[in-house]
From TrEMBL:
Pfam families cross-referenced by the UniProt entry: Ank_2 (PF12796), SLFN_AlbA_2 (PF04326)
Annotated Schlafen AlbA-2 domain residues: 141-277
Keywords: ANK repeat, Receptor, Repeat
Superkingdom field: Eukaryota
PANTHER family: ANKYRIN REPEAT AND PROTEIN KINASE DOMAIN-CONTAINING PROTEIN, ANKYRIN REPEAT-CONTAINING PROTEIN-RELATED
Protein name: Transient receptor potential cation channel subfamily A member 1-like
PROSITE patterns: ANK_REP_REGION (PS50297), ANK_REPEAT (PS50088)
Coiled-coil annotated residue ranges, if any: none
Length: 1188
């Protein structure tokens, strides 16, 4: 019946057809004595009624013409997909059950990659850390927890891992992953619920983990989590069982296996479904059909058939989400967005401005529009968060520019959502809560179209926050109530917070942004569960104990993120966290009956509330109300506290508030004087901040503090320069106007303030110092690396131009050209550093100022060498200068072909870095393809780097180069194989590159082939590409490892490739199959068909198959045939010979014992003969054992 079931299923899935059943006595299909149509149709109906339904069975299956020996079953094609078993599971409270065949809607819902999973219940039911032997476990079996007690004793072939796996382990994995997650507790009796434990050593724990990982990876997981990762899709922990004496029982543990929810559907194995495959004479669709073959439907085809029904191609059953145009762009934008947002959250405005300027895209950046949009969105947040005068107007101007640009992006929908999110956030900040809600609500449908990312999570958190604000505002709640169908605004907010956490759980990149958003979600959920909103309104007057504990759990998640994962809270998040903690203490006090405990909780709540006020005050984002709170608290009485708050805030506004308080200026001044006396480096810390007024106070009557040095001989001027505090630099230099000494003082590393500014690329500070320094300033001063200011300036666009412009129009710098070509310790001049950083403007400027274009570094490299791995513009600038300014024959060619200390030209370097445009320019200008000290050409390096365009350019220029060998006989093809560059390898093969070197075999070093390199370095795709070559067999025969050894390496590290080799060794013709055993033996003949196998001295591949349990290889027809011939030709004789020796020994020994027991004398003739025979054959047995 199994064959009939498979054939009917295949016909249903393949448009229908006729199934003819014949009674044959020699086959187990149907027996003649039960060959009746009624029995057949009844059996088929019983199978397919649960699969396609009774109505479909009646309409799609019918009996045709019937004879005594034949039944015709007519099958009509099924419009949907017939699946006999989904191999997919879901949990119940006591067990896991397979999803039935008629539950198609459930399967489609589970396979929706974007389905919402509420993991709150699973997160709240966390694992217990202590297990007491024979005690009743407090958690009961449920849809998120199942118990297992493996009572059978473990043996050599039945260890704990095998018993867990054979105990429906993978069905539990599928069930929990398809639900909301769950835990398997191994070592708890599933009948009594008592803790029993399992005996397992530390070594066995590692083996168990590896075995579970191996079987979990065999299951079918969604693409985004394939292969499943420990710690994300699943986890395992071992908890020691505590004995009655309170001590852990040795080697007895409860094993907790955690499975996390995974949207997209998790299958134990591929669903059981069949279809008909047409075997054609040729690959074309018009060729003759030779055979219709029933085959199991592979998972990819089954999935496409299920999600894309016939006639609806392109309209998936599950929602199709919009994703970024490229993964690299998504990661780049999200990383930049997270970095800038953290600076805003910490109130580091100046750092934000510098970082935004630093990341401004260049004109040739392919992602320029997207990067600009990310920067604009963050500038928008910067303006409305900063809260200074006209900042809201600036934010509006930024949004106008953003709206003009986002439609030009490749990912316009994503940036449209980002813009609407920013607008809604600004409306909320302005107090327009209704407008903010409307803007977010209108954008919600667009957000649903996006794949899970940081942006979608951020939007859901923002929208949930708006819902909580509306819930706390009675007027607004009544006005907008009609927008919701059933749930309250509070319930909807919880849904969106959970949705944000679910989206964050799928993100594996930008860990800091992910952690910050998770912290924000948990804190906001805790505040909401405690009956409050972030606007300060009370959502619920009374809160249940369950809600309080749920809020406590959310805050524990935040604490774990801080302590265990090291994700510190930002300034904004710290305020919210303290606010939630204060609310938690207050709500707990409402349920506390003991007066002392209640008062203690209230005191903790008040203390946390005061910390909220203080945190809000000392940050740069200070609102008017928070400033009033700061004044009322009169913190200036504690001088060190107020001074510390001012420094940490880095906010001039906070400083001004403190100075405006009665006696505030005197208090701060007294505190400053004390600090300056006790700590000579305190002025350095002050100069690092933008607090100019505080610096003025510090040096009011004590200017000599500006000459203070810290342990590294750093002056306050250098600290201000390093922190890019231009106003303070101007202040210090104005105080030093008489002595003119501070600007050229050196640190312990011989750096001056001007050097530090040049190193950091601070244009304004460099300009100010140069224009206001004394006449003794020496631009040729060197630091510990012998670098001067021009070395540092050459790395920054426009900075060098500013400096040279000042030098040209200032008399004191008239000798500046003397310092432009000075070398540092490694022989670099400013031109080399400009070329390295890709600053073609600086390169042109230096050449215009008489810097020699062909200056060599200590490694004999010219500027062209360094430009070759930066950008094409710098290369073109150098070549253009040589063409137009150098009046020498072949000057350009000599410049291009100049070699360094390793005999490499600029063409080598450009090729090794995949700079195909640079390679093209160099070749167009007559670059010669030379060999370096290893006799390697640019093609060798380009092949290893994997740049196909570079490879094509080099081959087009010099086709014979593909056969060139380096010193150890390696060709470009071998370099490509070593680097796993499959596409490059195909190009080389198309240009007649060989799989082995011309000098192959002349020395040990020159024996490796392309296939050797690919297999040795575990490059399976490359190895497969090589095996497609017509000379694949000869390549294996020439292997440095021998064919047998090479196949053994494949079996160990890439079994799929080994299967491909074995498939190639089996040649099927019409009536004959030929086998080639060359890859299974090291010496002797290479037989095919039935030839003898002689002189086989090694079988490394077979041994590796057995050692690594490669069953699929051992079961291959070629291997089976090889072992069969070995048995028939040699092993059978050896076995029968050994059996004869043992049988003779056994008979003679039996005769000897029988004679001895019957009383024969030891010197009797029969006894002597039996004894001799025993001695002889015992000796032969020992020799046989030793040989074997």
């Amino acid at each position: 019946m199994d064959d009939i079931k498979e054939n009917v299923c295949a016909l249903l899935n393949s448009g229908g057809g006729t199934l003819i059943l014949k009674a044959q006595a020699d086959e187990n299909i149907l027996a003649k004595d039960c060959f009746r149509s009624d029995d057949v149709i009844r059996a088929v109906e019983q199978i397919f009624q649960p699969v396609i339904g009774t109505a479909c069975v009646n309409s799609h299956l019918s009996i045709g013409n019937e004879t005594p020996d034949e039944i015709v079953l007519n099958v009509q094609g099924f419009k949907s997909l017939c699946t006999l078993s989904y191999n997919m599971f879901l949990p119940t409270d006591t067990q896991v059950l397979p999803i039935k065949c008629d539950e198609l809607a459930t399967v489609i819902d589970l396979m929706n990659i974007n389905r919402f999973i509420d993991v709150t219940d699973f997160e709240n039911a966390r694992s217990i850390d202590q297990f007491v032997h024979n005690s009743v476990f407090r958690i009961k079996e449920s849809k998120t927890a199942q118990f297992k007690c493996l009572r059978s004793e473990k043996t050599k072939h039945n260890d704990l891992g095998s018993r867990i796996i054979h105990n429906k382990f993978m069905t539990y994995v599928s069930a929990f992953a398809n639900h909301i997650g769950g835990r398997i507790y191994v070592g708890i009796d599933d009948k009594t619920g008592r803790v029993v434990g399992e005996t397992i050593t530390e070594a066995e724990q590692k083996d168990l983990e590896m075995k579970l990982q191996k079987h979990i990876e065999k299951m079918l997981w969604p693409e985004y989590c394939t292969p499943p990762v420990k710690g994300k899709q699943w986890d395992i922990s071992f908890h020691a069982v505590i004995g009655s004496d309170g001590c852990p029982v040795q080697y007895v543990y409860v094993i907790v296996i955690t499975i996390y929810a995974s949207s997209g559907g998790v299958f134990v194995k591929a669903p059981e479904s069949y279809h008909i495959v047409q075997i054609r004479a040729e690959e074309s669709e018009s060729s003759e059909i030779l055979e219709n073959k029933v085959q199991p439907m592979d998972f990819t085809k089954w999935k496409n058939r299920l999600l894309y029904p016939e006639g609806q191609r392109g309209i998936p059953r599950t929602l199709s989400r919009c994703d970024w145009s490229s993964t690299e762009l998504r990661k780049e934008c999200d990383a930049l967005d997270g970095k800038l947002l953290r600076l805003i959250n910490y109130g580091k405005w100046r750092d934000f401005e510098r970082e935004a300027e630093k990341n401004r895209p260049k004109a040739d950046d392919p992602n320029r529009i997207e990067i600009e949009l990310v920067l604009l969105s963050k500038w928008y947040v910067y303006h409305y968060r900063k809260g200074e005068k006209d900042d809201f107007k600036s934010a509006d101007n930024v949004m106008v520019e953003f709206n003009e640009k986002f439609c030009k992006s490749k990912d316009s929908l994503i940036f449209q959502v980002r813009g609407r999110l920013c607008l809604s956030a600004l409306q909320r900040t302005r107090g327009d809560h209704e407008g903010s809600y409307r803007t977010a609500m209108d954008c919600l449908s667009d957000v649903e179209k996006l794949s899970p990312c940081i942006l979608t999570a951020e939007f859901y958190v923002h929208f949930a926050t708006m819902l909580t604000i509306i819930e706390g505002n009675e007027v607004l709640r009544g006005k907008l109530k009609g927008d919701l169908s059933q749930n309250s605004f509070k319930e909807e907010a919880m849904v969106f917070y959970n949705r944000a956490l679910e989206h964050l759980r799928r993100i594996s990149y930008v860990p800091l942004s992910k952690a910050d958003m998770q912290q924000k979600s948990h804190i906001n959920m805790a505040i909401l569960k405690l009956g409050c909103s972030l606007s300060g309104d009370v959502v619920d007057e009374a809160v249940s104990k369950e809600a309080i504990e749920a809020a406590s759990t959310c805050l524990k998640r935040v604490n774990e993120s801080i302590v265990q994962d090291g994700n510190s809270l930002s300034g904004f998040r710290s305020c919210h966290h303290k606010f939630a903690t204060s609310s938690l203490h207050y709500r707990r006090s409402q349920h506390e009956t003991l007066i002392d405990k209640r008062m203690g909780l209230l005191e903790s709540a008040i203390q946390a509330a005061e910390e909220v006020e203080f945190l809000a005050t000392k940050r740069a984002q200070v609102t008017t109300n928070q400033l009033d709170i700061f004044k009322k608290r009169e913190l200036y009485h504690n001088k060190s506290t107020i001074l510390q708050a001012i420094l940490k805030s880095r906010s001039p506004k906070t400083l001004q508030v403190c100075l405006d308080i009665d006696n505030g200026r005197d208090a701060i001044l007294d505190c400053l004087r004390q600090e300056l006396v006790s700590d000579r480096t305190f002025i350095h810390a002050v100069c690092e901040t933008p607090l100019v007024s505080l610096v003025e106070l510090a040096i009011e009557d004590n200017e000599h503090v500006l000459e203070s040095l810290d342990n590294d001989d750093v002056t306050p001027l250098m600290k201000a320069t390093e922190a890019e505090q231009l106003d303070i630099v101007e202040l210090i230099l104005s105080k030093d106007s008489g002595k003119k000494t501070l600007s050229w003082q050196k640190t312990s590393t011989k750096e001056t303030a001007l050097m530090i500014a040049c190193k950091k690329g601070f244009h304004k500070i460099v300009k100010f110092i140069m224009e206001n320094s004394d006449t003794n300033m020496n631009l040729g001063q060197k630091d510990k690396h012998d670098s001067n200011v021009f070395h540092h300036a050459a790395k920054h666009d426009n900075l060098l131009c500013v400096m040279i412009d000042i030098c040209r129009r200032t008399e004191k710098y008239k000798n500046y050209k003397d310092y432009l070509n000075l070398k540092d310790k490694v022989g670099y001049v400013a031109l080399h550093l400009a070329a390295t950083s890709g600053s073609y403007k600086n390169v042109k400027l230096l050449l215009e100022n008489d810097v020699p274009y062909d200056t060599l570094s200590s490694s004999s490299r010219t500027a062209l060498h360094y430009a070759a791995f930066s950008n094409i513009e710098t290369v073109e600038a150098l070549l253009e200068f040589v063409k137009n300014k150098i009046d020498k024959p072949d000057a350009v060619k000599q410049f291009i072909d100049a070699v360094d200390s390793r005999l490499q030209t600029s063409l080598h370097i450009a090729a090794s870095f995949g700079k195909w445009q640079t390679v093209s320019v160099l070749l167009d200008n007559g670059a010669a393809i030379k060999c370096d000290e290893e006799n390697e050409t640019a093609l060798h390096l380009a092949s290893f780097a994997g740049c196909t365009k570079t490879v094509k350019l080099l081959i087009r220029n010099q086709p014979a180069i593909v056969k060139h060998e380096n010193r150890v006989g390696e060709t470009a093809a071998m370099f490509a194989a070593l680097g796993g560059q499959t596409e490059v390898l195909k190009i080389l093969f198309d240009n007649k590159a060989k799989l082995w070197a011309e000098s192959h075999g002349s020395s040990v070093e020159k024996r490796k082939t392309c296939l050797d390199w690919a297999v040795e370095n575990n490059k399976p795709d490359t190895a497969k590409a090589i095996l497609e070559h017509t000379n694949w067999k000869e390549t294996m025969e020439k292997s440095a490892f021998s064919p047998d050894g090479l196949l053994a390496m494949m079996v160990k590290s890439m079994p799929n490739v080994a299967i491909d080799v074995l498939n190639k060794c089996e040649k099927k013709e019409k009536n004959k199959t030929e086998y080639d055993f060359f890859a299974l033996q090291t010496k002797g003949e290479k037989p095919s068909g039935e030839k003898r196998i002689d002189n086989v001295t090694a079988m490394e591949a077979l041994g590796t198959m057995a050692e690594n349990s490669r069953i699929e290889c051992l079961n291959h027809a070629v291997v089976q045939k090889f072992m069969e011939q070995k048995w028939s030709l040699r092993a059978r004789k050896w076995y029968l010979g050994c059996l004869s020796i043992y049988a003779t020994f056994l008979l003679s020994f039996t005769a000897y014992i029988s004679l001895f027991t019957q009383g024969y004398a030891s010197d009797a003739r029969c006894m002597i003969i039996s004894r001799i025979i025993c001695y002889v054959f015992a000796t032969l047995n020992i020799i046989r054992e030793l040989l074997q």
